[in-house]
Structures are given as C-alpha cells and as structure tokens.
Design brief:
The complex is a heterodimer of chains A (315) and B (509).
Chain A lengths: L6 E5 L1 H14 L7 E5 L9 E4 L1 H9 L10 E2 L2 E3 L5 E3 L12 H11 L18 E4 H14 L3 E2 L6 E4 L11 E2 L11 H19 L6 H26 L10 H13 L12 H10 L16 H10 L2 H6 L1
Parallel strand pairs in A: 1-2, 1-9, 2-8, 9-10
Antiparallel strand pairs in A: 3-7, 4-7, 5-6
Helix pairs in contact in A: 1-4, 1-5, 3-9, 5-6
Chain B lengths: L7 E5 L2 H14 L6 E6 L15 H9 L3 H7 L3 E3 L1 E5 L7 E5 L12 H12 L9 H7 L20 E3 L2 H14 L3 E4 L2 E6 L6 E6 L4 E3 L2 E4 L6 H6 L4 E3 L8 E7 L9 E6 L2 E7 L4 E7 L6 H11 L9 E4 L3 E3 L3 E2 L2 E3 L5 E2 L7 H14 L8 H27 L7 H7 L5 H13 L12 H10 L16 H20 L4 H8 L2 H9 L1
Parallel strand pairs in B: 1-2, 1-11, 2-7, 4-14, 11-20
Antiparallel strand pairs in B: 3-6, 4-5, 8-9, 9-10, 12-18, 13-16, 13-17, 14-15, 15-16, 18-21, 19-20
Helix pairs in contact in B: 1-6, 1-9, 4-14, 9-10
The chains are: A alpha/beta (315), B alpha+beta (509).
C-alpha cells in the first residue's frame, strides 16, 4: 500500500486499538496516518480479560504496563466450562521423571485424589487479568501519543479486525477476522496479538519480496489458526470428538497412551495448558511412561507432598 | 500402568551408541525388573563417531550424574565454544558458528535486527564481537558459566571434543557398575517370531543363545538387526548430500588445544580438525563422485600440522536414515539408524536424541504402536531438520570453482529449507520448527558467514535513534571484550580442573 495513504483499522474497540497501537509502535509507516474505525464491542467495559504472559511483555514494550492499570496477576485463564488452563508448570520432575507421570502413579497406586491442576507451581507467571474498559482506555491514550486517531476520513486501505465486516475489501485481516473464534476474549486477544506480530514482521519487506512476505504471513496465520482451533475443539467439545483435526487426534492418542504432549510446529499453547485441557475433557492417560517405575512409592509419596500447593506456597 | 514391563533388554553392539544407550537405560530402568545385556566383539572395530559435540551432550552427562571434570579427564577431552568454517562462502572466507547467543535482545526483539540496522548505517559487520563464545574462542580463552542469571559470563555455552573410544570405555565402566552385563562375542543368527517378525533371541558364535524382549541395534552401518533381520529399508539422501567417503588421521598436537573445531571446505568436501588433550583428530569428508581416494588422502595430509600417529583410515557411508528407527521390538540407535556427515558435530547428538526419546516412550511387552510411531515421527523430523541445516552450508555459497561446488549449486532444495533461507536473507526473520535443534543464532551465523544476508530487519529496530543504537551496541561489545579479557586461557582451565596430567599424578599417588 502507498505509505502516505491513511490506513483504517476496523474492528471492535479492543481488537482495533490494540492492532493500531502495535502497528504504530512497531511498524512505523513512514508518515502514513493510522485511524481506527470502531465496530460493535465484543466485551462489556467491566468484563475482565486475561492477558497471557507474552502479551503482557508486548504491552510493556508499547508503553502500557498492565500493573499500573490495576491488573491482577493470574496463574491461569479459564475455558468455557471454567476449565483452568495454567501458565505455570505442574509440580517438579524428580530424577528425570515428569511430575505428570509421578502424579498418575500416585493416583493409581497411592490413592492420590487431588487434581493435577492443584499442583500448579506457585509464583509469578507474568500473566494478568484486567478490566476491558480500562485496557481500551489505556490503549487509546497511547494511540494518541503515537499519532493514531479515531477514523475521520474515507480510506482505501483497510486492516480488518472484525469478522462481520463483509462489504470491505481489506488489504489484510488480523485476529478474529482471520478465523472463527469461540466467545473467549482471551483467545480473541491472543489471535489479534499473534497475527499483528506476524503482520509487523512481514510489513516492511523490500518491494521485490512481497510474495515471500505474503506467503510467510499466511504460513504463520495458518499455524496460529490450527493451534487455536484445536484448543477450541477441546474446550468446547462437550465430549464430542467429531470436530477434532487429525493433528489433535494424534495428540490425544499420544496423551492417552503415553502421557506426553506430542510436540507440533508453531504451538500457541504450553504443554501444561494442553494437559489441563485434555484432563478437563476427561482424557486421562492409561500409561505415563515406564520411567516412573524407577522411583519407589515412598519417593513418589514424598515428592507429591513437597509439590503440594501448601508446601510450595510456604517456600 | 506398571503391567507387563520389559524384563530383558539386549543391546547388540558397543561403541559410543551402545554404551550411551546402556548407560542411560541402566540409570533409569528399575534394576529389579529389567535386565540389560550388551553384546560386543573386540574383533569388530568401532567407527568412533563424533569426537566433537554440541552443548546438549552436557545435559546427557548431567542426566547420568557424571562429574564433568572427571569425564573430560577420562576422555582426554577439551572444551568447545563453536566451529570455525573456512572457505565456505567463498575461497578465503572465514566465520565462526558459536554456541550461545549474539548480543542482547532489545525491545523484546532479537538482537540481530538491531545489528543489521547498525551494520547498514555504519558498515559494522563484525558479528563475532557480539558473541562471548566467538570472542573467547579466538582469544584461546575458556571458563564455565558462573550461574548468575544477570552476569554476562552466564551466557557462555559449551560442548566438548573428546576421544569417542575413551568415552565408550568410560560409559562401559559406568554401566557395568549399574548392573549392565557385557558379553563378548559375535552375533551370527537373529531369531524372529514367524507371525509378526518380532526378534525373540540372538545366537552368538560361541553357541550362546540370548533371549530378549526389546533389542537395541547399535551395530553401526550394517544394521544387523534393523536391516539384516527386519529388512526395514533405508532412505538415501545422497542426491542432496553427495558425500560418501571419509578418511581420518590422528596427529600429534603441535600447540595448545583451541577451544573450537575447524571445518575447512575443500574441492569436493571438507576437512575437520578437532583438538584433544593428547592428539588432534583430523579427517576429510568427500564425495567419491568428484574425488578419488588418493587425492582425498593427499589433501588431508597437506592439511595436518603434526606428525601422523597412525595410517589414514578410510570409511564409506551412505547419507540418509532408516525408514523406521523402531521396527517391531527393535530400536536402531547410532549409525544403524542413519548417517549425516559430522559437519555440525551432530553424530553423538543423534544418538543422544534416540536414547532420550526411547526412555520417554519406553514400551512394555505389549509394544503399543502409538509409542513406536511417535518415536519414529520425532526422530524422523529431527534427522530431516539436521540434514537441512547441513545442506545449508553447501548451498548458501558463492563457490562454483569445482564440479562438486557447481553440482551442489544446482540442487533442488527441500521447500522448507528454501523458505527459511529466503526469509532470513530478506528480512532477518526466522521461524524454528518444534523440536528443531538449531536456533536463529546458528542459522544467522551460517547465512551471514556465507554472505547471504540478512538484508532487511524487523521494523522494531527503527524505534531506537541512531545514537542510542550505536551506543547500546558499543556497550555490548565493550562488555563482552572485558569479560573475555578476564577469562583464563583454555589450556589454563584444563590444567587446573581436568588435565590428563592430573589423572597421571592422581594415579601415581
């Protein structure tokens, strides 16, 4: 797009102002004006949104420190059925054996009744929860400082962040306009954040590399989409597996048979988030690695106790 | 969960692969349940792959609980901070591929984007000045990280050069102490179940009949079990990497050991130089399609400095991988699993990766195919990523001065490699596959070292004023320079903590 033309970012206040500030801060367009056209809000101002740790880091880089806006540190984000998806790991390994394997054996042979989630390591995760209204207001304040304005003039160049905008011909799409998202502001913001970072990375390439840039942008979006869709399928499935992609089916199978999270390219979530999501879908491993049998039951019992939340909190 | 455990593991073949496998299994499998036997023959030589390693080997040693100073002393080892590549981008070129990092990230963005911007403004192209490893290596210095996360010194990362035969002997002692039985002998017959091909036992030349539940094939290129018995098949990659011969020659040391490997590109391949405490390992990897044995040996003899300690030893190989690393109840580890030339010192790492994944996916007697398939998937991806990174050295070059270099220039690249190269060259942008061994530091070192960019950078780097950028990067260079100046020399460090002369003096006591 010609760099002197105004660029309009169209989307809900949350999506559009975050997109605009990130673009203005990280991809200065050599004088091009950025303006925001707000569409319907997707969250109420008093709703609370969870920012993942990597999003908090991006926010600090754009000059917005959530702590100063009264954001509360959080250990996890919540799925639609109040599933708790933690940012920190579960317990600690012992002699090279993962805590999950230890917990499974404790459950089977020592009658351990506490859930795996109750062993989430204490300590700061970097993630936080913030009121939507405050967050959007802070984004607008920064936007003003970096020259982004509310939309005042017609523009031929559009970055679309709203999936319902059908009549526009956007130059590119980000966030919820890229994929079908379930009603979760956390996932929605994650999609905006990841897609705008990809856009920034690909934005300023030399003119003769435009095709390469477009291919790379598409590759990243597809990777993001695959990962988020898998997580949505798990969290919203209500036990149905029809919506599972082949990749998710493979991961479920490895989890159930081996107790491991199969690594995949460009995963947007941590292994502990997948474990929590699997367990919340009642997908429990039938085996958790044979190495756990190199530990005695006494070692397992002691270790589970040292990793219990109370003990960790005291440390 | 604990039902039906594997009771008898039989490892066929010693060497680095066999003893690394035996050591790791003996460390983690419960002795009361599982018996581990290793069969090897003194009459069959080992290839002694490796000698040079990458930093992950330290994780393996830690996993075994090995004392690092003792390990270095026992294997006549030295420390390795990276690899110097000569003549790769162009004849006369030289660059360093360091372990560790370059500079410090700024604004949450990789350092190299800021460096690219500054180098375009000020023609400051000396990337090595921002690497603690490269700067220390070229000053002949070494020290371990100090464990303080705020300290510059904590950013040093290292591996080892060691005598692979001594490493195998060291791990043999470790394994036997932990209950591994070693049987001297040659396998002459592999017995299989007719219904599914599972290996039930092996017969030895001595008449001994040994039964097992799980067999690990560490028999080297032959693949006595995985190929000889199970006919697994081999994926040949020699169209992409045409090297198929090597000649090795140990020589006397003529100087203090350098803390890095040297890999020099030649007419139809490359030579290595690996400094140990008691000798130097030298070799020449080449393609027999473009060079005969006599010429390859001549080049190697011209390249060495010290007096040869043995006759040149010739090896043949086929680059590629076994179609399945785990087939039925047999897992191939080491050269029986596949071969990639040691240009980036990955041979021992590929053994380590096989052993670690076998431990993580260790079967019971039911041999759940999901464990096997996941093992094969993960190892397959690991081999492919490593192959692509090695291939990068041959194709990111201006060399076309011999038929060999003209041939590699004409190769059709795997799409993933071509895309990664194009991205890094164009914009400094990099993505890393899940479980991919080599990070942006490695890709950047090779691409930049071989004159392939990056030409662009992330726009975040434009956020700093020129003076701020210049000052920040000058501070980084200064900090690294001061840190290196305060380090002991590599030789001093070895003498103090792990010199072989310490071993002799301990023995005399």
């Amino acid at each position: 797009m010609a760099q002197q033309d105004p660029v309009t970012i169209v989307g809900s206040p949350l999506d559009a102002w975050l997109t605009a500030v990130m673009l203005a801060r990280f991809a200065p367009l050599a004088g091009a004006k950025l303006q925001v056209l707000e569409t319907s809000p997707v969250a109420r101002v008093d709703d609370v949104v969870v920012l993942r740790p990597e999003m908090v880091r991006t926010n600090v880089s754009i000059g917005l420190d959530p702590k100063r806006l009264g954001a509360q540190p959080v250990q996890a984000w919540a799925g639609p059925h109040r599933q708790s998806l933690p940012f920190n790991s579960f317990g600690r390994p012992l002699k090279g054996v993962s805590f999950v394997a230890i917990w499974l054996r404790a459950r089977e042979e020592l009658g351990e009744t506490r859930s795996l989630q109750s062993f989430v390591s204490a300590g700061q995760t970097g993630g936080c929860a913030i009121e939507v209204g405050r967050y959007v207001q802070a984004l607008k304040t920064i936007a003003t400082k970096v020259g982004v304005t509310p939309c005042t003039q017609a523009s031929e160049h559009i970055v679309q962040a709203d999936p319902n905008l059908t009549e526009a011909q956007p130059d590119c799409s980000v966030g919820a306009a890229v994929m079908t998202l379930r009603p979760s502001t956390t996932l929605r913001l994650q999609a905006v954040h990841k897609s705008v970072l990809a856009l920034i990375d690909c934005w300023s390439w030399r003119e003769n590399d435009r095709d390469l840039a477009a291919r790379e942008y598409d590759r990243r979006l597809q990777a993001m989409q695959a990962s988020i869709e898998d997580m949505q399928a798990l969290l919203w499935s209500d036990g149905r597996t029809d919506d599972y992609s082949s990749r998710l089916k493979h991961r479920v199978s490895v989890w159930q048979n081996v107790g491991r999270i199969a690594p995949v390219d460009d995963d947007q979530f941590t292994p502990q988030e997948w474990m929590a999501a699997f367990l919340s879908a009642e997908l429990v491993p039938s085996a958790a690695g044979r190495l756990v049998h190199s530990l005695t039951l006494a070692e397992i019992s002691d270790h589970v106790e040292t990793c219990s939340p109370k003990e960790v909190a005291n440390v | 969960m604990s039902s039906n455990p594997i009771r008898r593991v039989v490892i066929v073949g010693g060497g680095t692969a066999g003893w690394m496998t035996a050591a790791a299994l003996s460390r983690y499998l419960p002795k009361a349940t599982t018996e581990i036997t290793l069969i090897e023959s003194d009459a069959i030589g080992t290839v002694g792959v490796g000698e040079a390693t990458i930093p992950q080997i330290a994780d393996f040693n830690r996993m075994l609980g090995i004392d690092e100073n003792e390990f270095v002393r026992e294997t006549s080892g030295t420390f390795k901070l990276g690899i110097e590549f000569a003549n790769w981008g162009k004849l006369g070129d030289r660059y360093f591929h360091p372990f560790g990092t370059y500079g410090f990230d700024l604004e949450g963005t990789d350092f190299h984007h800021f460096w690219v911007r500054l180098s375009q403004l000020e023609q400051d192209a000396d990337l090595d000045a921002y690497s603690l490893n490269a700067s220390a290596a070229y000053s002949g210095k070494f020290i371990r990280p100090d464990g303080d996360p705020r300290s510059v010194l904590n950013r040093i990362n290292y591996a080892f050069h060691f005598d692979a035969t001594r490493y195998a002997a060291y791990l043999r002692k470790y394994s036997e102490t932990r209950g591994v039985s070693r049987i001297e002998g040659k396998v002459v017959q592999v017995n299989q179940r007719s219904e599914d091909g599972f290996i039930t036992s092996v017969d030895l030349e001595s008449g001994l009949h040994l039964e097992g539940d799980l067999f690990v094939d560490c028999t080297g290129f032959r693949g006595l079990l995985i190929e000889g018995a199970l006919k697994t098949g081999y994926e040949d990659w020699s169209d992409l990497l045409p090297m198929d011969r090597a000649v090795a020659l140990p020589t006397k040391s003529v100087e203090s050991p350098k803390p890095y490997t040297i890999a020099t590109a030649r007419e139809a391949g490359w030579t290595w130089r690996i400094p140990l405490q008691h000798r130097v390992g030298n070799g020449h990897v080449y393609s027999s399609r473009f060079m005969d044995t006599e010429r390859a040996t001549e080049i190697l003899l011209e390249a060495v400095d010290g007096e040869p300690l043995a006759d040149p030893r010739h090896l043949r190989f086929v680059t590629g991988r076994r179609k399945k690393f785990w087939n039925a109840n047999c897992v191939a580890i080491g050269l029986s699993a596949g071969f990639l030339e040691p240009l980036e010192s990955t041979s021992i790492h590929l053994i380590q990766s096989g052993v670690s994944k076998l431990l993580a996916l260790f079967p019971n007697q039911e041999f759940n195919p999901i464990e096997r398939d996941e093992y094969n998937r993960l190892l397959g991806v690991g081999y492919e990523h490593t192959r692509d990174f090695i291939l990068l050295h041959y194709v990111a070059t201006e060399r076309a001065d011999t038929p060999f270099w003209q041939y590699v220039q004409s190769l059709e690249l795997p799409e993933t490699l071509a895309h990664k190269m194009a991205l890094l060259e164009s914009s400094g942008s990099f993505f890393r596959y899940e479980d991919e061994l080599f990070s942006v530091v490695s890709w950047l070192a090779v691409m930049h070292g071989q004159r392939r960019g990056p030409k662009g950078y992330n726009p975040v780097a434009d956020g700093l004023s020129v003076s701020n950028l210049s000052q920040s990067l000058a501070n980084m260079r200064g900090l690294i320079g001061k840190t290196v100046a305060a380090m002991p020399t590599h030789q001093q460090f070895i003498d103090r903590y792990c010199g072989i002369q310490n071993k002799r003096s301990m023995e005399s006591v």
